[in-house]
Amino acid sequence: MVVTLNGKKVELAEEIRTIRALLASYQLQEKIVVVEQNGDIIDRTRYEESPIADGDRIEIVHFVGGG
After folding, report:
1. Which pLDDT score is estimated for 18?
2. Range of the domain at 28
3. DSSP secondary structure letters along the chain
4. How many CA atoms lie within 13 A of 19 on its CB side?
5. For the chain, what is the domain count?
6. Residue 1 and residue 54: Cα distance in Å, rounded?
7. Residues 37-51: pLDDT tens digits?
8. What is the DSSP secondary structure assignment for residue 21, as one 8-state letter?
9. Could you tell me the CATH number of the domain that includes residue 58?
């Protein structure tokens, strides 16, 4: 399946079917991120049940501390 991830076309492995699986594949499951899927911000508690479909537009914003 091909999605647009942070503005770039990416082909996802067959086993990546949910937002949680996508985050895990990028080692982001434990980090503080916000995920937008097709213009909607996905609540963190719904990552496991939020399916990804071919052609989805996904933006992942990862927060970094600093000063």
Report:
1. 97
2. 2-62
3. -EEEETTEEEEPPTT--BHHHHHHHTT-TTS-EEEEETTEEEPGGGTTT-B--TT-EEEEEE-----
4. 22
5. 1
6. 5
7. 999 999 999 999 999
8. H
9. 3.10.20.30
Report pLDDT digits (tens) over 14-27.
999 999 999 999 99
Alpha carbon distance, N-terminus to C-terminus of the chain: 39
Query: How far apart are alpha carbons 26 and 23 in whole angstroms?
Result: 5
Residues in the chain, how many? 67
Beta bridge partners of 15: none
Spatial distance between the Cα atoms of 29 and 41, rounded to a whole number of angstroms: 16
